[in-house]
Amino acid sequence: MLDNVASKYTPLCKYDACVQGGTFKADLGIVAAEAKIIDLTVTATAAGTKDYGASPFVLDATYGRNIQVVASTADTAKVTVKGYDYLDQPVTEELTLNGTTAVLGVKAFKKICNIDVPAGTAATVTVKTGSKFGLPVRCTQVLATIESGVKGTVGTLVAPVNTAQTATSADPRGTLSFSSYDGKHLVVIGVADDSTFTLSGVERGGLHGIPHYFA
């Protein structure tokens, strides 16, 4: 839920303060610790692929969260993840494995539809949820975070990207990382940015940011 003073009168005004570059309150929901989504087995001749079809994997955070990947061996293959953000906008992200070191995604997925690891080095590739959480609008500053009703430490904000998206660029609305969140109800109070928007070109998109990359 996105909240501000005007939205107390009508839900149609939930973006009113944000449009003016004002503050907003966003409910990220009750989020779980990082957890495995799936293990994919890759061989020299067989890719590791999971297609969720009509029943995508849904991530728990209201506005989505990032994913992470790690291999069981010294693998450097590219993992391609396709899905949707919280606005049902299609998203494609590409993560390059770094062997047994976890590689963190930078885009906030709400739904995952397909994961693909090409054939190559024999390995088990584990895909997990991450600790970066999506935001409802472009955010330039986090003023406070509330964790299950208690004021928490302000997390780490990754600024929104305002140039043409690629498979590896950060989220167009930005993401926020927390050091402690397992099972907590997270609420963010932030400042929305509308200072760099244009109505055309690569910077189109306004308050919700430019379109995600999808291929």
The helix/strand class is mainly beta
* Strand runs, count: 16
Along the chain, the helix and strand elements come as EHEEEEEEEEEEEEEEE
Which regions contain 5 or more consecutive residues with pLDDT less than 50? none
Oligomer: single chain
Count of individual domains:
2
Arithmetic mean pLDDT: 88
The radius of gyration is 18 Å
Largest pleated sheet: 6 strands, antiparallel
Describe this entry's structure for a reader.
- The chain has 215 residues and is mostly beta strands.
- The protein folds into two domains: 2-30 and 133-208, no CATH class; 33-130, Jelly Rolls, CATH 2.60.120.
- Helix content is 2%, strand content 43%.
- The chain contains one helix and 16 strands.
- The strands form three sheets. Strands 3, 6, 9, 11, 14 and 15 form a six-stranded antiparallel beta sheet that branches. A five-stranded antiparallel beta sheet has the order 1-2-16-12-13.
- A hairpin with a 5-residue loop joins strand 7 (78-84) and strand 8 (90-96).
- The chain starts with a strand and ends in a 23-residue tail after the last strand.
- The mean pLDDT is 88.
List the keywords.
215 residues; mainly beta; Jelly Rolls; 2 domains; six-stranded antiparallel sheet; five-stranded antiparallel sheet; 2% helix; 43% strand; globular
